[in-house]
């Protein structure tokens, strides 16, 4: 039986960040039991009196008071929630087999709490309802109208903004929307301003980035999935001053990635190319292929292998918690790739 379009897009989202984990994602199940073990979020004074209302793809959601029991059903929504000092009682897993479905850059924010881990597969309304949430956050969930109708009967629910593709909400927007929902708008804005200042500093320090073409490409299923500026990784490159070639944007259409076959690797012949996979041997195999070795980016040594699981996830989550760590690791490597000297060795980014 053919899969539904929604199912295919959800699979693609999980596949595209780290292609090596594609097969296992569909089988992921909840790592925690069904009883809420995370401490409810402490009540905080509202930034302004009265409820807040937030627009999204399926209408509007009104949140009457600061939430105390937040469930994150988006694949990356736990980060902006945790950044504001709120610990979700439930977190949807994505990939990587991380403790509490929370990655190293954010784990300390749990403060020892043990949120229930929800399956990376389809959203399970019963599991969500069992946590007795007063807010459900799903900006990065890819939820359908049917999902929203079901979840919104359980608690006020945030779906993705209508102006972006599914899974394509910019990190700034996600942080500010969630800040509003948690009645912490000023704190959210301060977090966004701080990370944008880091981008500005990195861009100013590296004028060679300005106008250069650069792409993240994830390996999987015999293809390279090239992220556009509708994806978190493409937006990181754009914020540093680089651009995505127009032909890839055209090929992607209304998706956040373009599918590039090994016969059309010429589409990836950019000034810098990041090859993303947790399987380092898969990257090496592509780099050693005849077609790839004929590309200018290969001949000049400006291809960047990225197989470190955590570093790749820092870019994939692209939150106010993960971006600073990623920039520290990645910017020096990108600078080596774009310094105009083919003799410069470009190393694979790795955790420090």
TrEMBL record:
It is found in: Cell envelope. Residues 69-338 form the Fe/B12 periplasmic-binding domain. Pfam families: Peripla_BP_2. Residues 1-29 form the signal peptide. Keywords: Signal, Transport. PROSITE patterns: FE_B12_PBP, PROKAR_LIPOPROTEIN, TAT. GO terms for biological process: iron coordination entity transport. Its main location: other. GO terms for cellular component: outer membrane-bounded periplasmic space. Belongs to the bacterial solute-binding protein 8 family. PANTHER family: FERRIC ENTEROBACTIN-BINDING PERIPLASMIC PROTEIN FEPB, IRON III DICITRATE-BINDING PERIPLASMIC PROTEIN. This is Iron complex transport system substrate-binding protein.
């Amino acid at each position: 039986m053919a899969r539904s379009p929604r199912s295919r897009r959800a699979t693609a989202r999980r596949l595209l960040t780290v292609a090596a984990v594609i097969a296992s994602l569909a089988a992921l199940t909840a790592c925690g039991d069904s009883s809420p073990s995370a401490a409810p979020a402490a009540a905080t004074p509202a930034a302004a009196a009265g409820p807040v209302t937030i627009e999204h793809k399926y209408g509007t959601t009104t949140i009457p008071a600061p939430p105390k029991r937040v469930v994150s059903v988006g694949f990356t929504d736990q980060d902006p929630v945790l950044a504001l000092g709120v610990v979700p009682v439930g977190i949807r897993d994505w990939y990587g087999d991380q403790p509490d479905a929370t990655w190293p850059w954010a784990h300390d924010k749990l403060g020892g709490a043990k949120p229930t881990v929800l399956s990376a597969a389809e959203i399970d309304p019963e599991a969500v309802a069992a946590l007795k949430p007063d807010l459900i956050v799903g900006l990065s969930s890819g939820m359908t109208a049917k999902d929203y109708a079901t979840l919104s009967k359980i608690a006020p629910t945030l779906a993705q903004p209508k102006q972006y593709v599914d899974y394509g909400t910019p990190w700034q927007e996600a942080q500010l929307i969630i800040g509003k929902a948690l009645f912490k708008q000023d704190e959210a804005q301060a977090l966004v301003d701080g990370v944008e200042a880091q981008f500005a500093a990195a861009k100013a320090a590296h004028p060679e980035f300005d106008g250069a073409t650069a792409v993240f490409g994830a390996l999987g299923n015999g293809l390279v999935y090239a992220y556009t500026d509708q994806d978190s990784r493409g937006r990181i490159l754009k914020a540093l001053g680089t651009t995505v070639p127009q032909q890839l944007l055209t090929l992607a259409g209304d998706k956040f990635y373009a599918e590039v076959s090994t016969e059309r690797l010429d589409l990836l012949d950019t000034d810098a190319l990041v090859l993303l996979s947790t399987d380092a041997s898969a990257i090496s195999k592509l780099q050693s292929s005849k077609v790839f070795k004929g590309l200018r980016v290969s001949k000049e040594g400006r291809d960047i292998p990225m197989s470190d699981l955590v570093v790749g996830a820092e870019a994939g989550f692209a939150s106010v918690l993960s971006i600073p760590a990623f920039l520290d690791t990645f910017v020096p490597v990108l600078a080596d790739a774009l310094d105009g000297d083919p003799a410069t060795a470009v190393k694979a980014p790795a955790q420090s």
